[in-house]
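Work Package 3 (structural annotation) set out to generate three-dimensional models for the target panel prioritized at the project kickoff. During this period the team completed the workflow that converts sequence records into discrete structure tokens, so that structures can be stored uniformly alongside our sequence database. As a representative example, we reproduce one entry of 249 residues exactly as it appears in the project archive.
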Amino acid sequence: MTFSVFEYKVQVKEEEEISILSTCWTFSKPETEISSYFYKGATGGFFSFAITKDWASKNFSSKKFKNSRAIKKFLNGERGSYTWMDIAPKAHEMGAELSEYLEQANSPETDMPALKKKSMKLIMEFFDNAFDDSRITDNISLSNLDYHNVAKAEKIILQNLHLPFIGIEVIAQEVHTSPTKLKSNFKIVFGFSMLQYHKEKNMLLAMQLLQNSNIHVQNIALLTGYDSAGRFAASFKKRFGQLPSEVRF
């Protein structure tokens, strides 16, 4: 299981950049090859947890894990990998605390019980949120090539967030696979269709631009691929339950 926190720069004007924070969880079975792409110039870190069968047998029997049976089935199955974006609201702060302990991991004064406790807390934050959809329970395995193609498709989407969605057919052609297969596999891995993923990333970007910059709402709409502030505001309210003007006051 991997939790990653990355910060990258978005050019919003010729003379202005803004830092955007992105968090991501990936839960994978052994023998699964994972491909990842990141924005050029991004900085950040990974927290990787290797779960052994002995650890799983001991800890997933605990009442803390409401879905222990599904987790064990997943770990005992064939290859597979699923990815979640920003599903655990407290994970970034927990990761920052854990980083401080890890920097002292080789020191004789390291508080190992506290390090284990904070690691477990971060793991629990993932499992408390990972079953909002049914992907772990459904337990669908793809080939390593399919996972690689899905990662390439994600990269293409991320490179074109500032434009309206370019279309499944265009992406599939660049990935060299069929639109139907790519569409199905992408949703298995990310829990979103490619169009939904594009919209979700843009909404998360818009929220951070509203919170961390003075960019006009009209310009944020353009930066996130909308041709009008009205359409952007409607999509934003549908996603977050409030208008852009209510976020920035």
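The longest strand covers residues 16-28.
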